[in-house]
Amino acid sequence: MPDRLGAPLDVPVFERLALIGFGLIGSSLARVARQKNLARRIVAIDASDTVRARVTELGLADTVTGDLVAGVRDADAIILCVPVGVCGEVAEAMRAGLKPGAIVSDVGSVKGSIVTQVAPHLPEGVHFVPAHPVAGTEQSGPDAGFPTLFLNRWCIITPPEGQDPAAIAKIRAFWEGAGSMVEEMSPAHHDLVLAITSHLPHLIAYNIVGTAADLEAVTQSEVIKFSAGGFRDFTRIAASDPTMWRDVFLNNKDAVLEMLGRFTEDLSALQRAIRYGDGEALFNHFTRTRAIRRSIIEIGQDSAAPDFGRQPKTDKDQ
Amino acid sequence: MPDRLGAPLDVPVFERLALIGFGLIGSSLARVARQKNLARRIVAIDASDTVRARVTELGLADTVTGDLVAGVRDADAIILCVPVGVCGEVAEAMRAGLKPGAIVSDVGSVKGSIVTQVAPHLPEGVHFVPAHPVAGTEQSGPDAGFPTLFLNRWCIITPPEGQDPAAIAKIRAFWEGAGSMVEEMSPAHHDLVLAITSHLPHLIAYNIVGTAADLEAVTQSEVIKFSAGGFRDFTRIAASDPTMWRDVFLNNKDAVLEMLGRFTEDLSALQRAIRYGDGEALFNHFTRTRAIRRSIIEIGQDSAAPDFGRQPKTDKDQ
C-alpha cells in the first residue's frame, strides 16, 4: 500500500470545484486537490468571516467567498463539507447557482438523512453522488487540515438508484486521486455500518468521560493524572467536534439506537459475569476480541506500534 | 518534564532484586533496572520454560530460575509481576526463601485484593509495600518490554498502615529511578480511581468489540475495513492480556460494578436524548468533555498529535 500521495494528475478531474465549509475535511480536500491537481480551480465557500480570512491567508483556494449562489456558479463539482444538520438548508440556498450537469456531493457521516435533506432541492439535470470519507482526527477548523488525511482510508459512496454512471465515475476518480479506496453501498447499509464502527464508539467515549467528570469520591485531577491506564484514549475521541456529533446522532437515530441496544445487552452479560465471579466467561470474551484487532492491523487500518507508538521503543534490548 | 531516562545511579537502590513473572511489566522493569543501576544483581523467576529461555537469550537478568524459594533467597527486594489472581499462591510458595528485612512489592492493577491475598503469607520482619505503575501497552510477553515504559508515568504505592518508612522510601526511590512519579494512597481509594480510569474503559472496549463481532447485518470484514471512524481505538484496548484482565475484574468487583452502574445510568440519559431528538442535551454533553482532554494533554499524560500522530502531518501548508 503506498504511504505517500502520488504524482499530480495530468488532467484534473474537475474544472471548477466548489468546497462548502472549511473545517478539517473541507480544508484537507482543498489541500490534496491542489497538490494532486484534482481540480483546475478551487472555490472556497464558508459562512464565517474568520474562517474565510484564514483560508485566504493559508492560500487554500483560488476564490474565497461567503456567497453560496455566486460560489457554486459555473462549478462542475460542489462538495458540502458542513455538519449533517445543515446540508438541507445549504442545498436550498445554493440551488439558484447550480449549472446543468454539475455534480453535487458531500462528506457527511450519515447518508440516509443527507439524501432526504438534499435531493429535493437539486434541479433537474444536476447529479447527486453522496460520499463519506472514513477519516478524521479529533481536531477541527481550517488549520487542522492536511493533504494526506484521506490517504489509504476508505471513502464510501452511496449514489441513488439510476444515477448517471459518468457522475459516479468522476466522484470515484476524485477520491482515488486523494489517495482513498472507494466502496459503493446503499445509504441504509452505510448508516448501519457506521453506527457500529464510528457512531457508537463516539457515544460511549463521550459518555464515560462525562461519568468520570461527575464522580464525587474520585477527584477530576485524579482522573486526569491516572488516565494512562485506558481512559485517555476515550478522551481523544470525546474531544471531537460537538456540532458534528450532535447532528450525527440526530440524523442516524434508528441505527444508533439498534446498536446501542445490543451493546447494552452485552454489557449486562459482562456485568453479571463480574458480579457472580464467572472468570471463564470473562476470559473467553476477552480472548475472542483479540482476533479483530489483528485483522485491522493486517489490512493497514491501524498501526501495530504498541500504545499507538506514544512511547518510543528505544534501547529495547538493553 | 524529562523525556529520557537519566544517568545510572551511583549506588543501586537494591543489592539483589528478584522479579517474579517476565511479561511486559517484569521484563521492562529488568531492562530499566539494568540501565539505571537500580539493582546490583537481578534474579528472573518465571514458571514457564519458554519464557525463561527467552529471558536468558535476551540477557535480561544475572540469574534465571523457575524455583521460587531459591530465586528469592538473599534478595532484599522481591517484586511480583504476575496476574493479580495468582499473587496469593506465589507469596505462599516463595515464603520459605524470604530473608528478614526483605521488601515484597508487586505491580498489580488492583490493590485491596493484593493486600488480602499476600499479607497473610509474609513472615514477621518482611516488609510489604504494594505498588501499581499506571503504564502499559496492549502487548504481552518478555519481548514486549522496554526500559522507558514507566518514564513520566505515575506509580501508585499503597503501603499498609504502620509500614516501615525506610522500606517505603526504598520502593519510592526504585520507581523514581525508573522515571516514574510516585503517589501514595489507600488500597481502597486506589481501586476506586483505577475502576474509572482503567478498568471500566477496558470493560467497555472489550464489550463493544464483542458486540461488533456478533452482528448479522454488518459483516466482520466491513467492521474491520471501516474501523478508522473510532472503533479501531477500542480494539487496541481490547487486545490486552485476557488473563490479567479477567483477574482485575474478579478482584475489583465492587468498585467496577459501582462505576459501571453510573456509566449505564448516564448512557440511558444520552440514549433518551437521541430517541427524543434533544440536540441541546447532546451538544452540551459533548462540549463539556473537551476540557478533560485538554487537561490530560497539558499535564503530559498524552500526546496532542491528532489521531495519536498515526497520520504524519506533512506538507501541511500545501
How would you portray this structure in words?
Two copies of one chain form a homodimer. Chain A is of the alpha/beta class and 318 residues long. Chain A folds into two domains: 14-184, Rossmann fold (3-Layer(aba) Sandwich), CATH 3.40.50; 189-277, 6-phosphogluconate dehydrogenase C-terminal fold (Orthogonal Bundle), CATH 1.10.3660.10. Chain A has twelve helices and nine strands. Chain A has helices at 24-36, 49-58, 68-72, 87-94, 112-118, 165-177, 187-213, 220-225, 231-237, 242-251, 253-275, 279-298, and strands spanning 14-20, 39-45, 63-65, 77-80, 103-106, 127-128, 131-133, 154-157, 181-184. Chain A has a six-stranded parallel sheet with strand order 3-2-1-4-5-6, with helices on both faces. In chain A, strands 7-8-9 form a three-stranded mixed sheet, with helices on one face. Chain A is elongated and about 65 Å long. The model of chain A is unreliable at 312-318 (pLDDT under 50).
Secondary-structure blueprint of this entry?
The structure is a homodimer of 318-residue chains.
Chain A: E1 14-20, H1 24-36, E2 39-45, H2 49-58, E3 63-65, H3 68-72, E4 77-80, H4 87-94, E5 103-106, H5 112-118, E6 127-128, E7 131-133, E8 154-157, H6 165-177, E9 181-184, H7 187-213, H8 220-225, H9 231-237, H10 242-251, H11 253-275, H12 279-298
Parallel strand pairs in A: 1-2, 1-4, 2-3, 4-5, 5-6, 8-9
Antiparallel strand pairs in A: 7-8
